[in-house]
């Protein structure tokens, strides 16, 4: 069955960096585009960005463009989110998700909490 | 960016009721709209994509309609497990955007 498992979250100081990973299994990873979506505590869903199946095309949300970088290693079936120059408003649960058509998101990981605090 | 506005922000219902949630898009998104359900502490799950296509495994009491700027998600015969927050999402252009959510309460 399809599984997406995020890791790498935790408490990070403002201005510092952290990298999240999303390990995929149960499907042919290199044929699907992937997304990151975040959710601040008690808030709604905010799209972070998307990477094409082969890693050549990337799109980012306005609030993270220039600070966050999405990448993938298809040989390891793993998606990454490099988060730089972190701010308090980046505190959220970060989900990785698989894209189908449109794009819409059919499978989601359980999420990784990143807390930006001094 | 495409703005999605969901209404109402919250709605109360009883088991067995029929509930309709609305999502308005500005500008329009043709049929590229999805609906998700999210329960506390859990990731969202896809219910409907392409405005009206029921995702595999989702009960048939969920249905979606609409095109362009106005979309609805209808839940017939609401069940206890349906009490959750529902989000719409557009996929016609980047950046992808979500509505602010509708909370379905008892």
Explain how this protein is built:
The complex is a heterodimer of chains A (118) and B (106). With 118 residues, chain A is mainly β. Helices cover 0% and strands 53% of the residues of chain A. Chain A contains no helices and eleven strands. In chain A, a hairpin with a 5-residue loop joins strand 4 and strand 5. The relative contact order of chain A is 0.31. The model of chain A has no long low-confidence stretch (mean pLDDT 97). Chain B is built from no helices and eleven strands. In chain B, strands 2, 4, 5, 6, 9, 10 and 11 form a seven-stranded mixed beta sheet that branches. In chain B, a hairpin with a 3-residue loop joins strand 5 and strand 6. Chain B is globular and about 35 Å long. At the A-B interface, strand 5, strand 9 and strand 10 of A face strand 4, strand 5 and strand 10 of B.
Summing up helix and strand content along with how strands pair, one would put the structural category of chain A as mainly beta
Number of helices in the DSSP assignment of chain A: 0
> What is the alpha-carbon Rg of chain B in Å?
13 Å
Question: How far is it from the N-terminal to the C-terminal residue of chain A, by CA?
Answer: 39 Å
As a percent range, the share of strand residues of chain B is over 45%
Q: How far apart lie the N and C ends of chain B?
A: 34 Å
Class derived from helix and strand content of chain B = mainly beta
How is the biggest beta sheet of chain A arranged?
7 strands, mixed
Give a brief rundown of this model.
The complex is a heterodimer of chains A (118) and B (106). Chain A has 118 residues and is an all-beta fold.
Topology:
The complex is a heterodimer of chains A (118) and B (106).
Chain A: E1 3-7, E2 10-12, E3 18-25, E4 34-39, E5 45-51, E6 58-60, E7 68-73, E8 78-83, E9 92-100, E10 104-108, E11 112-116
Parallel strand pairs in A: 2-11
Antiparallel strand pairs in A: 1-3, 3-8, 4-5, 4-9, 5-6, 7-8, 9-10, 9-11
Chain B: E1 3-7, E2 10-12, E3 19-26, E4 33-38, E5 45-49, E6 53-54, E7 62-67, E8 70-75, E9 85-90, E10 97-98, E11 102-105
């Amino acid at each position: 069955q399809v599984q997406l498992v995020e890791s790498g979250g935790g408490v990070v100081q403002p201005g510092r960096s952290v990298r999240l990973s999303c390990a995929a299994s149960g499907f042919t990873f290199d044929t699907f585009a992937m997304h990151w979506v975040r959710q601040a505590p008690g808030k709604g869903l905010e799209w972070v960005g998307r990477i094409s199946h082969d890693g050549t095309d990337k799109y980012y949300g306005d609030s993270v463009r220039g600070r966050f970088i999405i990448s993938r290693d298809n040989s390891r079936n793993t998606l990454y989110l490099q988060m730089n120059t972190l701010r308090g408003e980046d505190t959220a649960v970060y989900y990785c998700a698989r894209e189908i058509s449109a794009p819409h998101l059919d499978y989601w990981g359980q999420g990784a909490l990143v807390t930006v605090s001094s | 960016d495409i703005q999605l506005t969901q209404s109402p922000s919250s709605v109360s219902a009883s088991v067995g009721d029929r509930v309709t949630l609305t999502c308005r898009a500005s500008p329009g998104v043709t049929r590229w709209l999805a609906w998700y359900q999210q329960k506390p502490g859990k990731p969202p799950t896809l219910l409907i994509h392409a405005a009206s296509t029921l995702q595999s495994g989702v009960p048939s009491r969920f249905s979606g309609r609409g095109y362009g700027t106005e979309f609805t998600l209808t839940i017939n015969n609401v069940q206890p497990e349906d009490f959750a927050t529902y989000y719409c999402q557009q996929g016609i252009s980047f950046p992808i955007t979500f509505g602010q959510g509708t909370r379905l309460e008892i």
